[in-house]
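#dry-run=false #mode=assembly
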Amino acid sequence: MSTPSALPTLLSTTVRRSLVVGRVSLAISCFMVVIYSAGFGFGGGVLISIGAYILPIFSVAGGIGGALVYSNDRLKGVLEYVVAYGIRPGRLLVNAVVASAVQVTIILGLGIGAGVATYRLSGHPFVPALDLVLLGYTVPMSYLSAALMTTVGVYWTSLASPRSGMNSPLGVLPMIGLVPTGAVLILALAAPPAHAAQLVAAAELAIFIVLMVLWTRSERFMPTERLLSPG
Amino acid sequence: MTAGSGPDTPPALETGASYLACRGVDSGYRDRPVLHGVSFSIDRPAIYVVLGPNGAGKTTLFRTVAGILRPTAGEVFVGGAPIDRQSSRDQMHYLSHMDGMPDGLTVREGLEFYASIERATPADVDRVLDQLEIRPLADSYISKLSAGQRKRVSIARIFLVERSIYLLDEPTANLDPKVAREIRALILKLSQDRVVLYSSHNLFEAREIGQYVLALKEGRLTLFDRMENLRGTHFIIGVRTLEPAAALAQWERRGDYYLKEISGPDQVPGLIQELEREGVRLREVREMENPLEELFT
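#status=ok
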């Protein structure tokens, strides 16, 4: 009889699969974000800031691969095997969120790189406020929104009856990711300029806390029996 | 319940620990209890066929024994240890009725995915590609395979590493007869020194491959015995011909079919040869009655 040993995390495989399964949305997002960022970069001034504000939208749209892999695995009965081998559902959630974060990193890298490069190459002066927008809003909101979208997607997929395509929770998932992005953006634009940064930071902290609470409830939202293929 | 309470009862393991044991297991789903007080003990390597009508609890039994579903009452033991230990899970292979092959990967990558969970090596993946004759599919995406090919690839997983216990839920469903026969041959070879729990709706297959039978009905284990101890061990074969045949004049008729009682499916090829020698032009030979059918009613 074989001896027990540590179970693999399946993280790298999940990340790689999310890039394959989510390649269409990722490719479209990458293409769009490069075009938009480069365009805004050439425009300079206010335009580059607008580009930084809308970048999380592309991150959400392109970061759906983690949830796609999870949803596909449930439909195809892969989760049943994985659970049979002793891998806990919470691990699958972590994998999906990390896979989504990797996709967001690719989109952000391309978007910020293209935007900043064209902005500087066009001879526009360095603006400290741009750093603040990128570090205070664009980057954290991209990761937070994608993480929230993936978490809700994984939980929703787990609790709902198995469905595929646009009829599945995945069909409306990007909208869920866009809600916090839009809400924080409106908050940032509506708030007095002197307090906008603090309000945005507070809103991001609130989203992070919501995420932490959701992550601690993975056993509740991912009951094993709901991960099984139809009997 | 233990297998074969009669004189054919197999000897228990010398260690005293059975390969697999369920003791008073109730199991099911949050809003739907399925298994009720299921108890049995498997003490020797063999193929144990699980039979029962749809909804009897076969898949739930496999999931419970595999440790996926936690019993609401009773316990499952593997080699004497509770199923919730990782060491117990590591004794088993589980093949569900779904193929469970991940999208976005080629066949080779899909097997490597499971190899990583199983702590198998790339050499093991190469070996099963040849063993299951799926090497030509190795670089094909799983999503592009036919249902039969996917099933075959799925079955390949259980040959990546050796385990003591194999839980196979309808392993030959969706396979063509030739492949199904090859898979059964592999499973038969496996069972020489391992426990195979095998569910099937194909009664001929069950009869051919199983040494023991577990029958489930409405979530209760109603029978656990040696296959040959089943009552009514005769099969009825129906023969349809292209033209009236004098050689079959003495056979009982049922509609277009001439009926013949045989003792097992292994007699069918010889019977067909004999009829052809006698000049009977056969149109169809089919199973009319199978003694295992009574377990479904």
